[in-house]
Design a protein that fits this description.
Blueprint lengths: L1 H32 L9 H8 L9 E2 L13 H5 L6 E5 L2 E5 L4 H5 L9 H4 L6 H10 L15 E2 L2 H13 L2
Antiparallel strand pairs: 1-4, 2-3
Helix pairs in contact: 2-7
Length: 169
């Protein structure tokens, strides 16, 4: 009898032990799976750099990059960590992104000499900036060119993002 019981006890004991080890691993590794949260000073900053919200609300864009996946592309990838824009390489193509710091967008002197036609625009208002982000439309009604994506996010997240653009200098 006892010879028959022992293996079962071992199996159960081993199972419980393995379960505990797994649980311990999960507890230790869990914070590592979310390196993003908490490392940004504001939700707007997190959205700018990661295209994810601390609220957990979804943020998506219509950017289709085939194999590259759209998830890798955030405001920061294209407009730079400082929001000043620059030259970006994507899919073997080079393109220029504009300076999207709040002061730049809201002043009329935007656009470099001679580039007025291409990049210049009327001063943005807060509502214009939100429209540019969600609908890809400039203050004067012109559509923004590829590859500026059209973004879908909650109003609260959009407000946070705008607040973050105001902090860039
Ligand atoms: C894949 C690259 C890419 C990503 C990602 C991207 N943008 Fe853009 N964005 C552009 C390009 C390129 C333009 C310029 C389009 C044009 O000149 O017509 C632009 C234009 C803009 C403009 C208008 C600027 C102006 O001078 O009229 C705003 C505002 C803007 N982006 C904000 C954002 C924000 C906020 C995010 C993140 C939520 C973002 N963009 C993500 C590429 C990108």
């Amino acid at each position: 009898m006892s010879e028959k019981k022992t293996p079962w006890l071992l199996v159960i004991g081993g199972g419980v032990l393995a379960g505990l080890l797994l649980l311990a691993c999960l507890v230790i590794l869990y914070p590592l799976t979310r390196p993003i949260s908490g490392s940004y000073r504001s939700n707007g900053e997190q959205i700018y750099f990661t295209a994810t919200s601390q609220r957990g609300t979804p943020i998506t864009s219509d950017l289709r990059m085939g194999m590259m996946g759209s998830g890798a592309w955030t405001c920061a990838t294209c407009h730079g960590a400082d929001g000043r824009g620059g030259t970006v390489r994507m899919m073997m193509r080079l393109f220029e992104t504009p300076d999207i710091r709040y002061q730049t967008l809201t002043t009329s002197e935007h656009g470099e000499e001679g580039e007025e036609e291409e990049h210049g625009h009327e001063p943005y208002t807060d509502a214009d900036i939100k429209r540019a982000i969600t609908e890809g439309i400039e203050p004067d009604g012109k559509p923004l060119d590829w590859p500026m994506p059209r973004w879908t996010m909650s109003d609260e997240d959009l407000d946070d993002l705008l607040e973050f653009l105001k902090t860039l200098d």
